[in-house]
Amino acid sequence: MPPSYRVWILSLAGLSMNRFAILTAATMAMTIVAACSSDGGTTTATQAPATTTATTALAAAPAAAAAPAAPAAPAAEAPATGSEYLGSYTLVDKEFGTMVTVIVDGSIRTIVSNALPDHATGDFPNSGNPNTISEQDVSYEFIIEPIYTGSATGVRTTGVAVNGVKFEPGTAETVTCATGETFRVEAFQDIYNLGFDFNNAHVQPTGEYHYHGVSQLLVEAYEHGDDLVLVGFAADGFLMYYSKSGAYESGYELATADRTGTDCVLSLPPGNAVDIGGTSPDGTYTSDWVYNEGSGELDSCNGITIGDEYLYVITDDYPYVGRCLNGEVSAGAGGPGRNPGTAGPSDSPGGPPNLTLAAEALGVTVAELRAALGPPPPDIAGAAATLGVDIKVLRELIGGP
User: What's the predicted TM-score (pTM) here?
Assistant: First the structure.
């Protein structure tokens, strides 16, 4: 995708300006470049002055602390190089209205975005999504020296793309049964129309456009010839990539046991009855998928260690974008205005689990979580199957054994 009306201003960490001043300066730079175009046509990418230095090697990214012994990458594969988005940068795209500023300062990467993608989108509203894309005012703070814990933390917002659009792979739609089961509808399935466009994205009621999977337009805009393309930053600080060759496979497979549940109702209006009991898993619901360790190169969070660096890979198959993170997630890192990635929902060691925070991290209601857990002692394995989440993730969230 040609970088029409796009201006990059790299390494702004040393500037002492608020985010709006930075975005205004970037807009002025874009206007000047456009005015200087002799043919009045598309403005090409403009590099910063010679005093500005762009980070270009993946090796310069923070290495994983206590990296796991994850499966080795294919012999022909090596970490990607050439990305100029590991340091500070500002991205302004006049054609699509994109305004993103990323500041790497000390131990924090701050992302300020209006959440408008720098590429074409589908039509919204549409038959499956009644919402209109609108400019947002969102900011994120992720650490730049991530700490690998090996303990998967369930998150709602896995990370943010290089262009400032968030990755939020789960959905809000569910099928709930009178017998206690809850099935979360998957984004990419053939039964329910959730209004996704050709970027595997759609719009929330707030007007925020977001990705549930990879956008090929995003990949094309930021690839530099390497197989691994840096496409985003995970909420735990590790980096997010896409493999153009599909060299890395997830370890998720369809469950073999039939679904259970009677008198089931879809959360989408008008609340139609859904036949669940005795049906076979086909990928329509999150709980249709189970992780089989060793069946793919990637771990349960779609992560892998390449060389000495732990990173996440977005795949073309389930889970597409990982639903959990293996790094230490700081408070507030999961997204603006909420904290879906908090690892320890209990306020004090040994205290009762905070179901409100746990439910928020899982993207369910407290009532749904309580119903899935059942009476004390909680049935964690059964709840994980009902909610369609990894049992390790659920244990971490509620502090179960």
Answer: 0.70
- For 125, 126, 204, the CA distances from 194, given in Å and listed in that order, are 11, 9, 11
Report whether pLDDT(27) > 60: no
Supply the DSSP symbol for 155. -
Whether the predicted pLDDT of 81 surpasses 50: no
Asked whether residue 385 is domain-assigned, the answer is: no
Q: Is the pLDDT of residue 35 over 60?
A: no
Distance (Å, whole) CA 221 – CA 164: 13
Tokens 């990173």, located at residue: 311
**pLDDT at residue 108 greater than cutoff 60:** yes
Pure H helices in 187-269: 216-222
Q: Which domain holds residue 305?
A: 6-54+63-343
Residue 393 belongs to some domain of the structure:
no
Q: Give Cβ neighbours of residue 391 (< 8 Å, ≥ 6 apart).
A: 380, 381, 384
Q: Closest Cα to residue 363, out of 394, 330, 318?
A: 394
Question: Torsions phi, psi of 397, nearest 5?
Answer: -70, -35
pLDDT tens track for 312-326: 999 999 999 999 999
What is the number of domains present in the chain?
Answer: 1
